[in-house]
């Protein structure tokens, strides 16, 4: 039996992970399950999967969690410190699936245990950058990329040496607004942006896919996971999301990983790594698909990938500022406070102000994140529509 912890168990990645665990119940012992504020959902999952501990980040919901787990023998805890305490418990695999910078501290705690971390929470790696990769090296931890593109690249890299890589191509669906004009984009509503053509995901990443900031964050994520140099990392729009990413080697061979648009495929590859396991996902029907198409990204209509590239080149605090400002902007868009096109504008404005010094430790990263949120909120006051 292997021991597993799932940070962000109530989310989309959490649900896909637990679906695979449910199908192989005898192989896994669940150590910890965590959630933000969905106490009743966490109670339901804890009663099914019997973890040692269930943690609710929002302490105001702890009473509800305690009540729901009374008499089960499962510990209930609340707040940020409890989240890190749970992430630090011994386990064979930690799935890092909290959304945004909120997942940074518990993910770092899991890394400091020197174990295996399946990383879906790209914002944590984007913000922490060197601080996280240095901790991975220092504590002998293993990061398994769970993001579908990075998982694809990780698989393609098994066939060659990183020194022999000529380029890495991240594919992007282009999102629901791929063919929209700028004028149409200006009036795009949250409901329209939340309808992703290929993937069923949490709200924040779905909006990031519509703005292409998801690909911008993934560009920085790839730079951190696969040290080939920024100039070798490319972005290609591929609306069918069948090819999840590609690696080109110096001899002219390009390897790609293909699969259905179902996160259970890359998650299964992390759960079973370095072996393989069954999933219930339907095999690819390439004849049914008929055609795969490819386009260059349009950074006029979707400036987010350019902002991310510039932040990656600037290094230091810039990626953390980009990611924090984007979190503020996406929340404001979802709350109806700003237009869709204001999301990237707000991120650009926040990056334009003086950047804090490069973070050297987790506390520095959290401080940069906090400062960037305050700045973005100030900019929001001048951007806010109606
Ligand atoms: P989601 O919104 O569905 O779930 C997020 C999870 O994080 C929930 O369990 C929620 O309770 C928890 N959470 C949110 N805020 C928190 C806070 N302040 N403190 C503690 N916990 C908190 O998101 P998701 O789509 O599952 O995405 C999770 C991560 O995985 C994101 O970083 C996303 O970019 C990445 N990712 C997701 C997909 C996907 O298909 N959903 C694909 C690739 C990468
Ligand atoms: Mg992805």
From TrEMBL:
Domain DXP reductoisomerase C-terminal: from-to ranges: 258-373
Domain 1-deoxy-D-xylulose 5-phosphate reductoisomerase N-terminal positions: 4-129
CC cofactor: Mg(2+); Mn(2+)
PANTHER family, alphabetized: 1-DEOXY-D-XYLULOSE 5-PHOSPHATE REDUCTOISOMERASE (PTHR30525), 1-DEOXY-D-XYLULOSE 5-PHOSPHATE REDUCTOISOMERASE, CHLOROPLASTIC (PTHR30525:SF0)
Keyword Magnesium assigned: yes
Gene3D superfamilies in alphabetical order: 1.10.1740.10, NAD(P)-binding Rossmann-like Domain (3.40.50.720)
Pathway connected to this protein: Isoprenoid biosynthesis; isopentenyl diphosphate biosynthesis via DXP pathway; isopentenyl diphosphate from 1-deoxy-D-xylulose 5-phosphate: step 1/6
Residues that hold 1-deoxy-D-xylulose 5-phosphate according to the record: 122, 148-149, 173, 196, 209, 214-215, 218
Stated family: Belongs to the DXR family.
Domain 1-deoxy-D-xylulose 5-phosphate reductoisomerase C-terminal per the UniProt entry, residue ranges: 143-226
Reactions accelerated catalytically: 2-C-methyl-D-erythritol 4-phosphate + NADP(+) = 1-deoxy-D-xylulose 5-phosphate + NADPH + H(+)
Keywords of this entry: Isoprene biosynthesis, Magnesium, Manganese, Metal-binding, NADP, Oxidoreductase
EC number: 1.1.1.267
Protein name per UniProt: 1-deoxy-D-xylulose 5-phosphate reductoisomerase
Protein residues bound to NADPH: 10-13, 121, 123, 202
Database matches in Pfam families: DXP_redisom_C (PF08436), DXP_reductoisom (PF02670), DXPR_C (PF13288)
GO molecular function: 1-deoxy-D-xylulose-5-phosphate reductoisomerase activity
Origin species: Croceibacterium selenioxidans
Annotated InterPro entries: DXP_reductoisomerase, DXP_reductoisomerase_C, DXP_reductoisomerase_N, DXPR_C, DXPR_C_sf, NAD(P)-bd_dom_sf
Gene: dxr
First-tier enzyme category under EC: oxidoreductase
Summary of the function given for this chain in its UniProt record: Catalyzes the NADPH-dependent rearrangement and reduction of 1-deoxy-D-xylulose-5-phosphate (DXP) to 2-C-methyl-D-erythritol 4-phosphate (MEP).
